[in-house]
């Protein structure tokens, strides 16, 4: 699956939805998405933990172990690496995961280069998507972003991810400055075809689907409580069972 995942970044734009459990991933496979990512917020929140604090390594690995049964490449968000970026990368690669997201936490970019190089040494087949939070944390700097992206690409990163970057001129400048696929986080107002025209190779949905699921759950519960119509389109019990059972039949009559 790793080679297939790499190839998905080379021709056109990969729209990557992010799941938080097996059923959500299987449903997205059934919808026809070419690859599935995970959302660290969704995984953490579903287990009662905060995101970004490195508390969900075990849960992340267990989810990955289940998701590789699906007939799609799987990319896993490992936050900043749970204190052992190369170790977690190697463990996930051995499970059959196709790629990882690795954040820099806005630490020293030189140190992050060393971590990236070690990850690629121990798990060379993984698609390593190197994330920097220069825009996500509210102090956007195009020059700092480009510097970090170039450093990470030079260290062996297969792609760079800049969540929060949305201005067309900034995106175009980043694409022109690095020689690896650029990943952008979908935000309201984005149009996929416009991002593709700017040279973006991957658009991730991040925690959007998980947050939308929470919203839908509360909206539905409120409708039942208030005697309002329940939203239409909710999958039935058997449909969810089919997602789970069908998703486990990799290569033997399940999702194709």
From TrEMBL:
The keyword Lyase applies. Pfam families: PEP_mutase (PF13714). SUPFAM superfamilies: Phosphoenolpyruvate/pyruvate domain. It comes from the Bacteria. InterPro entries: ICL/PEPM, Pyrv/PenolPyrv_kinase-like_dom, Pyrv_kinase-like_dom_sf. The keyword rRNA-binding does not apply. Keywords: Lyase. Coiled coil: none annotated. GO terms for molecular function: lyase activity. This is Isocitrate lyase/phosphoenolpyruvate mutase family protein.
